[in-house]
Amino acid sequence: MVGSHPLSKKLTTINTFSLLKSCTTIKHLKQIHAQILTAGLSPDTLPLLPTPLASFSLSNPLDIDYALSLLHPFGPTQKQFIYNTLIRASSKGPFPQQAFSLYTHMLKAGVSPDHLTFPFVVKSCGRICSLKTGEAIHGSVVKFGLEIDSFITSSMITMYANCGSLDRARKFFDEMLKPNLVSSNAIMAAYVKSGELAKARRVFDEMHERDLVSWGTLISGHVHCGESKEALEAFRAMRDDGFRADEVTLASLLSSCSELGALAQGKQFHAYVYKHHIHLDTILGTSLVDMYSKCGGVEIAFRLFCTIPSKDTLAWNAMIMGLAVNGHGETSIGVFLEMERERKRPDEVTFVGVLCACSHAGLLDEGFKQFDRMSSVYSIKRGVEHYGCMVDLLGRAGRLKEAYKLIESMPIEPTPAIWGALLNGCCIHGNLELGEQVGKTLIKLEPHHSGRYVLLSNIYANANQWDDAKRVREMMREKGLQKAPGCSVIEVKGHVHAFVTGEKEHPQMRQIHAILEEVGKRLALAGYAPDASRVLFDLEEEERENSLLYHSEKLAMAFGMISLEPGVPIRVVKNLRVCGDCHSATKMMSKLFGRKIIVRDRSRFHHFEDGSCSCKDYW
Ligand code: ZN
Ligand code: ZN
Hints:
Layout: H1 13-22, H2 26-38, H3 50-56, H4 64-71, H5 76-92, H6 97-108, H7 118-127, H8 131-143, H9 150-162, H10 166-174, H11 181-193, H12 197-206, H13 212-224, H14 228-240, H15 247-260, H16 263-275, H17 282-294, H18 298-307, H19 313-325, H20 329-341, H21 348-361, H22 364-376, H23 384-396, H24 400-408, H25 416-428, H26 432-445, H27 450-462, H28 466-478, E1 487-492, E2 495-500, H29 509-525, H30 532-536, H31 552-563, E3 570-574, H32 580-592, E4 597-600, E5 605-609, E6 612-613
Parallel strand pairs: 3-4
Antiparallel strand pairs: 1-2, 1-3, 4-5, 5-6
Helix pairs in contact: 3-5, 5-6, 5-7, 6-7, 7-8, 7-9, 8-9, 9-10, 9-11, 10-11, 11-12, 11-13, 12-13, 13-14, 13-15, 14-15, 15-16, 15-17, 17-18, 17-19, 18-19, 19-20, 19-21, 20-21, 21-22, 21-23, 22-23, 23-24, 23-25, 24-25, 25-26, 25-27, 26-27, 27-28, 29-31
Bound molecules: zinc ion (ZN) (2 copies).
């Protein structure tokens, strides 16, 4: 092996350096090391050896014995430098506990730790969530007189927060005479990890200076807490403050756009990436794919996906799921097959996407095939989501008894969501017998979930069993259950407008109502009449008291019609499932007004065009 390597008999420092740079395995490193020793070189090349060793430890366990053997020829200063290099690398790699072992060896060898040692030893304690070790290291920091170092302090704050001791982190912060930027960012991040956004915001507001990290932490905090609008507002304030978003902050912001269905805003971020020459790495590329998919722009998502040079599993998963929920089941399966051809290993999330694609497109045979392959070919354990997709798929095909049998055969406890998928199937196919049984099971499992009562009462109403339907409604009222209000959002000219069912507050409400009345008239002329039973009962989780005409998505759609240019698709995001009446009415509206309408509800997209919907009336 050694002989075959292009090492000349006389190694120079320069070619040793280039060899070490190209070194990718520990075996190769040891060969070079042996060559240096046997070639009798001057020791000036030896300090180069720990560098590749440190980079290996970013992805593999460090060979500590070998690392220690490299230290022998050096004096205390060089030893300290090498220990620090290895500790820093270990603290970032998958085996952070090794940083602590190296630190112990360092003390035993009589080498003093310094201000570059502790931040990474402390970080490792935080990563392994060992409060006890963290406290011991804290003691050493004080012993070595380094407790005033700002980087060490901020790493302590993060460590205490990671170990679940937010109070200690705060105490540490409060005891600082002059909290600086690094420590303020650390305590802010600590509050954001634990969901205490208000406290994080207070720290942010009290900071005398802020940097990109402070802004990025605030933005990601809003995103994590589901405050998408606030995240976008924080971005604008950050821009006004003269800061430019980096890849990480942009990825956070894009997920806010996805949440809100804010396509125009998302496109602006996409343009921002190009304008500021921000590197479109796999994470940012995937965030864009996800944003476009979730904002109903799945074609752009697909084009963008094709340009990502090295796609990881996350990127493939985002595209497969994006196509699936937008009703492009066959294309989604096609992307999955391409992933397999490129020998990328799918994971359990990939199969949720694949089965979801089959379920949304009604591909029963393909669904069964992939459900089998995920376990037989890839040994991936089937989870509730996978079973949920299969129950949905069978329900769509009207094979309700098989769906029931599949639930019964599950090796894991079926969740209410799975029974809910079956109940939905029973409701759509009008299977009173099974629907009644499943509905009762569900109410027993979740006695406080209003939607379960609504679906059961719908089943009775569809079978004209009005007394039973009313009885279920009364049961629900007696329990004092509140239904979640329907809420729909639409983005117009970069601003997100939210509508709640029955809403009266919007400044343009008079025009919105005028449009809806006009829609009502034109629908009536076209022969459409809302189903009386549905007016009473098929309200899903919407307020029964509000007329069907004022369901939140109808308000948002009407607002879209008056504020968007003709020909521009209307995109609405709704928090609940679309009700049957709104679905029929929207189909009709897309035909009458010649307009594409895209509604994203709780679980999928409805692309309405020319009188039909991409969900093929099963949702
Ligand atoms: Zn509705
Ligand atoms: Zn639909």
